[in-house]
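Q: My labmate handed me this sequence with no annotations at all. I'd like to see what the chain might look like in three dimensions before we decide whether it's worth expressing. Could you predict it?
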Amino acid sequence: MSKENFTQTTAYLKQAVPLMIKYQIPTTPTNYALWYTYVAQTNPQLTDAVNKTIEDSGVCTPLSSELLYQQHVAAQTERNVDTMKQSLEAMVTEINNSMQDTLSGTGEFQAMLDKSFSRLMKIDDEGLSIEETMSLVRELVQGSRNISLSTRQFHSQLSEAEKEIAELKSKLEQSREEAFHDSLTGLLNRRAFDQEIHHQLSVQAPFALIILDIDRFKNINDGFGHVFGDQVLKAIARRVKDSCKSGERAFRIGGEEIAILLTGRNLLIARQFAESLRRAIEKISVMDRKSGQHLNTITASFGVTEYVANDNYENIMRRADEQLYRAKELGRNRVMPMSL
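A: Here is what I predict for the chain of 340 residues:
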């Protein structure tokens, strides 16, 4: 590295580190890469995305940093899943080649056996000498050893392959567990929610929490089937994502429960947001592909709360759940608290 490059790199780090401290971003290699790229201004899309995140919510949380990294930085490098896929393909090719070699060896040994037995059957007629007979036996023994060695090698490769597959499976499962998105709805998942809300509580910054629950979702599943129920979930998730335009973040935290975090917002603003979303969900119509019937009575109930001084995870979740329960108790399809 030239002296000029070293100086420039140092200057970028001196800009990146204070920003990470300001937004309380953990000093991980991933976050260093993200914020270094941001201050270096080498990725305009990343710069715009970070600026919008900060503009919308006033902060850039660890979860936001991780998602920005995945979208704008990690996409430029080789993915772990691709590496695993290539490893599996190479392994399958090697095993297939070994199997073909073993099968080929087996075929050759079978041909030799047929030829040898044919010759043995002629012993009485032709009177083979002891030397000729021993030569035939040695050929059979050597052929047997060769096929045995080939088979053992193949079994050894299969055993090694099983170990490698188990390791790859473990890594894939770990990668899946570490993912932040729900595979069905595309919303962020419970793991992401817990991480984000614990961060908000740790910095004691103001935020509001909304929890919505789809009304009578069990009846939908029972009446139309789980495939249709998934369609309803995805339709509501799309409506929720469309509503999150100003830094709000939505998570699927349970079967039919969705949480929305509004960083820097108070209870009044969160309640207005929830009421607007409630009306938007009322307009959803989902068609049952089997019967052609449309379901036009989809609604959701909402519980809303906000951060208070020295709050903890259990308390804020309990308050939101209590408000959600009251909304259900009062007839569903409503936002609680009803008024402030």
